[in-house]
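Pasting as-is:
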Amino acid sequence: MTASQSTAQLNSPLESQSMNDLVQWQCLRFDDLSPPLLYAILRARSEVFVVEQNCVFPDMDDADQDCLHLVGIVAKKVKEEVAEQIADHRKIRVAAYLRIVPPGIKFAEASIGRVITTKEFRGSGSGKALVSEGIAQLEQRYPNQPIRIGAQAYLEKFYGSFGFVTVSDIYLEDDIEHVEMLRAASGT
């Protein structure tokens, strides 16, 4: 499995979580996602976008195959357990996820999309870690280029804290208010 991997301490409010729980970040091409990991990602996306947000929309939009997938997988204590978990979708715990979209697919610029933090990990800092890691991955792959996103309007301040600036009026996408935001190229 070809992956860019890092491990970060997760400060979770969950009683069942210990300080030894780790989020292992993996950035994988679509073809490198194992079927159990792909299932866990799609399930997490469905739980957030379709069930929680009560939004029926075509999540699988034929862009996934051209994107990179950044996923935070929770593992107890040792990295070796992540490999065991990935072999069985019932053992995979997705803390957070986003997809890195190359330039020309959604926007002229590279972008991030399908950004989620699963319910049990909200408030733990994993969403901030996810976006930071996503920006780092984008800057590594597309240096000195801006990043454009279509953000849910209520998250405008959150994305603003990462240097994104609103560049559009509010628009509806799948009956949810969104705004386009742009982050200037690093080094400019």
